[in-house]
Amino acid sequence: MDQNIPPAAGAVDRLIQELNRLPGVGPKSAQRLAYHLLRASDEQTKMLADAILSVKQKTKLCSACFNITDTDPCPI
């Protein structure tokens, strides 16, 4: 973790570390996102978590064109 960012406790630190693994998200951005999620309502946080899980469960790459799709092969 970046030396300029103070360590956070337990679950928050884990969230920051996981967000930091995303492309284009550095340590400071990961911390800002984590703190935003802490201030967000339970409903907003659940909607984000559900959207992430849904895209992982319901989408795939088309075997013909490698487009992101929910059917294989895709309609393109």
TrEMBL record:
Stored InterPro entries: DNA_Rcmb_RecR, Rcmb_RecR, Rcmb_RecR_Znf
Occurrences of domain RecR protein (ranges): 60-76
One Pfam family of this chain: RecR_ZnF
Example GO molecular function: DNA binding
Gene Ontology biological-process entries: DNA recombination; DNA repair
The name this protein goes by in its record: RecR protein domain-containing protein
Organism: marine sediment metagenome
